[in-house]
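So, who can interpret the following?
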Amino acid sequence: MSEIEIRDDRAAGRLEALAEGEVVGHIEYFVLAAPAHALVPVHTIVEPAHEGKGIAGSLARELYTLAAREDVPVAPLCPYVVKWAERHPDEAPAADPELLRAAKQWLVAHPDRF
């Protein structure tokens, strides 16, 4: 498989993995504004033909790297990202329970977003 490029499409709320210019996986997320800014991943999707190649893990790692560069926490709601963070506590600081509650409330208030 060719090299994976990861790009952040903030306007669409997608962190995308590309191989040879084709999107082969992505994390859908939103930016929580209150009680504090946070990146909130909701879904991780990898195209079936590209599963098992480490793409989802690369996306999760890049999400946490992006959050660290922006000095904001990650409040993961995506089950994959939650598990990835548990396996990589040195790269993925634990989420504040208050931010997780706020993120869940945001999702309830915006049912058409995801």
Observations:
- The two ends are 30 Å apart (CA to CA).
- Residues 55-70 form the longest helix (16 residues).
- The chain has a mean pLDDT of 94.
- Strands lie at 4-9, 14-19, 22-32, 38-46.
